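Re: beginner question about structure tokens

> Can someone show what the tokenized structure looks like for a real chain? I only ever see the sequence side.

Sure, here's an example I had lying around. Input first:
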Amino acid sequence: MKYFGSGRSGAFDWFFQRVSGIVLLVTLFLHFYVMHFAIEGPITYEKVMVRLSSPGWKALDIVFLIFAVYHAVNGFKLIIDDYVHSTVLRAVTIGLLWVMGIAFLTIGIMTIVNLRVQS
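And the corresponding structure tokens:
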């Protein structure tokens, strides 16, 4: 009998997929509340930039980004583990997936950290 899959149990990946989903849900509701109920009047570029000039909001956005990228990459990795049966092809696709995830994370963090309020 030929065995398909990565040979790992996947319990760690499964567990942290759920943990990252919960963190994403909490931060999404926080973001929605702040953007749509806590700010008076229409949402403008200036209001968003003032909020993002705070180190606390930048930190929250970076945490949100980290968990979003991890959740997406891990989800695709779980799909690859289930459906790609060649060990070499699985390793290459997962490697490319992590490179893309790290690139998105780097670009996102650089964007959040370098935001400046224009006077």
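Each token stands for a local structural state, so reading them left to right follows the chain. Helices lie at 11-38, 45-52, 55-83, 87-113.
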